# Entry
Amino acid sequence: MNNLTSDSTDNLYIEKAEGIKSLNPRIVLILAISCGITVANIYWAQPLLDSIAHTFGSNITTAGLIITLTQIGYVIGLVFLVPLGDILERRKLIVIVLLVASVSLISAAFSPTILIFMAASLAIGVTSVVAQILVPFSATLALEHERGKVVGQVMSGLLLGILLARTLSGIISASLGWRYVFGIASVLVIFLSFLLSRTLPKSKIETSLTYPQLLKTVWDLVKTERLLRIRSLYGMLVFASFSVLWTSLTFLLAHPPYNFSDAIIGLFGLIGASGAASANIAGRIADKGYTKSATGIFLFSILASFLIMVFGKTSLVPLIIGIIIFDFAAQGAHILNQSEIYKLKPEARSRLTTAYITSFFIGGSIGSATSAIIFSKYGWVGVCMLGGIYSLIAISIWIRELF
# Structure
């Protein structure tokens, strides 16, 4: 509560029957929904890649670069925008970035060429980092005894946004065309900017660091905090696996033997959405101190999911089972990572987020780029092998940490 202005804490906390204070569930819900909407902007295009490629007359490899550019943009936003959450008033920062995001989405909707669409995708990535300003904000608002649970609940919204974006995107595209997806997303973001401007508490600025000094301290945190480095590596490799799966899944499902439409491909997001349930579980595990062992279980589950999904080349059952296992494990590992790093330096949570999520999305960019290349050369089996390799590297790091 010390980093909020005195006139912004009304209705922010509630007192339970036992006399223990807790963050107002309404605020948690708004933060979760906000994270889901903003992060969805990165994923609207995933089930539409085949349709977008067809509109602009591009090939699979070029279409795959759309996701890569969006993720690169996200990394740029993480490095240069998210740290501002430690030196600027967060509510104002969030609203300004959201308004710029709405312009980027409209540009994508009206893009006349693939190059302009790619430029808009880069801008969408940069401005979608609002979610990563909101997550450390939620950790700051939460009281110590409930921090893991609150972060888990907010991240549930973020993860649902990632996965349900595909479903909504596919349905809208099938009914109205893929351009409407980005137009509707722009309207949602404008509404969100208004909601958050009226709901979020106003924060105080508690550091005198200049912007260049602030950016330097991000690197200083990476150098001095071993836990941050380890958890960032886990995040990088897990999200590389995530992008490997979801980038090439569109190409698999759009062609024989499946030949699914954008709407059907989007419905696979509902299957993956079951993984968001792991966010609450992982948050409670973090609060109880079982992070290290749970991390290993999640990493081995990711590897097992790719072994199962190999058989999804021609059969839906193993594909669906593998996706459910994968997303549950990947989201759980991500929550454990964030819960751990937020324990390090409460006054630097935006910068800790920058370091961790930058690594996370570097992994995602590598995963989506390599996935499109591998799929074009070696097909679905090659994609599953690639995802398994990333997870094996993460497991080897975890085993080393045990001894």
